[in-house]
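Example complex used in Figure S2.
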Amino acid sequence: MTQEMLLRQIIDYANRADPYPLYTELRKKPVRQEGDELFVVSTYWEIKSLLHDPRISSDARNLSPGAAGTLLQEEEDSPLPPAFLRLDPPEHDRLRRMAMRPFGPPETPRRVYNMRGELARIVDDLIDGFGDRKEVDIVDDFSYPFPVTVICRLLGIPREDEARFHSWADIIAAGLDPDPGGDPGEQRRATHEARTELGMYLSGLIDERSGAPGDDMLSALVTQQGPDGQMSRMEVLSTAALLLIAGHETTVNLITNGTLTLLRNPDVLERLRNDSRLAVPLVEELLRFEPPVQLLPQRTTLADIDIAGTTIPEGASVWLVLAAGNRDPQRFPDPDRFDPDRPDIQHLGFGSGIHNCFGAPLARLEAQLALTALAHRLDGPRLLDDPPPYRQNAVLRGPRHLNIAFDGLRS
Amino acid sequence: MRLVVDLNRCQGYAQCAFLAPDVFAMHGEESLLYNPHAEEAQREQVLRAATACPVQAILVEDTDEAPATMGEGLSGVR
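Predicted assembly (489 residues):
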């Protein structure tokens, strides 16, 4: 199998349900060159070292002309400036620090912690909403509405506007797919339009909040005065859009992948039902075993980098395949086994280094609560389709539907 | 309960300060303060924090035999 074919196969939708054998192939050469300007990294230590290497950039403006515009064009002519996800220090650090002020420590250590009760209520309400049904779609009825409701409340999006948000977020996330299917021109146009509409909507909301700030994060981003000064209006816009999209697409997949994995491992499900403390290591193992972000396709080199016998030239596009690193047998024994009792679980599911997942504490809590509640409340749950139908996206990978049957609900 | 954070390992990911804010606190962006004799009632949160630590720097005593002692203050500035 040629190298070129391997990357194509990973992107190919036909392999979405189980890309892991392809990752095993990929790891045979830790750093693979694909064409002139693209390098794919698939082994744990190589990925980890590049995630901590200041010569790796997340800023698309550092791509060489040949590497830019190959496979990922979603942000070309974006109406919003890049958020901290796509910036390097010092700009990245300043904006991330300012976004963190209203979200977490040191300034706001209890925001997420104090949401526990509300999160548990939302989960219970959604499960109550299954009503008398004996079959549900876990995605549409549970794992999509849960984190999406949470991110909207956190940001302070009025409930009546949540539905509009969902459709914009869906379109923008589809634009992050290296091979979205359909007409790429049409895809880009739709993404651009969704970003513009989202920007205009948020802009109106920012006007409102700057006059009458609430307890939400958007108000805090607009009004904060700290050592880093104030965010510009455009910075607030792109930060809010980033949090919103990230909050939409990733936790949905984490919870759905978790439900799927539990139903495939009924012994673990039974243990979780009897001891909710298992949820904590279980979610970490899930982040290793089925990470919601399979690969980071948006890094580039600021200098020639020698790694694993290959020189990645300056300006090349670098793909870090987190999901392959997470199954690297050189790092994790018996990596294809789902084992929540692993004593050593430093997975790459949230990345690592300066761009480590901003929302990780919230995602952890959401997944722990959601999976525990499902384990407790569903009587005799079972999968109706295995494998389930997947979303197109190879990067933000997860089932589009997860139809399950059960005998009833426990209170 | 007793716990120790290996502050040579700690890289300031702050997951513990999110998950167990009564035991761990960030001082600025990178320095961690924590209570090495946390109350027994904090055990669940402390275990969440220890499990989530990306560099596995938090060591927690296994047994819960010792009654919680408070008032020994925070330690661990680096």
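The CA atoms of residues 69 and 76 of chain A lie 8 Å apart. The radius of gyration of chain A is 21 Å.
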